[in-house]
Amino acid sequence: MGILLGTIFVSQHLFSHSGLLYEVDPAGVEQTITEVKVFPNPSDGRFQLNFEYSGQEKIKAKVFDITGKLVEDITDDLVKSERSVTANIDLESPSSGIYFIRISGGTSILTKKIIIK
Q1: Average pLDDT estimate for 80-98
Q2: Residue 113 above 80 pLDDT?
Q3: Which residues are within 8 A (CB) of 51 and not within 5 positions of it... i.e. 6 or more apart?
Q4: 2: how many CB neighbours lie within 10 A of its CB?
Q5: Which residue ranges form the domains of the chain, and what is each CATH number?
């Protein structure tokens, strides 16, 4: 048994927010991303992403590894209904580890962690 010591540097720009975000667009319409769910978590690389979104701006989503390297742009996988967004994601042959899903809509940015086993 051993101990792993080290330092991880993560860009604040990449992972700037994690949680519930409320923003107001120039027209005065609230842009809200809430109830973000990623499951199963941990995953084998196949997972579902669900969240509530009340804004009108285009939504983007990308998956990054722990170093901040883009793994996959999943924007085209997002299916938006009136108040929610869903996606079935399959990261083909991912390495085990921690990944981050960055969701942006308008001026809102949200980051969610997923573990790949």
Answers
A1: 92
A2: yes
A3: 33, 34, 35, 36, 37, 84, 85, 103, 110
A4: 4
A5: 21-116 (2.60.40.3080)
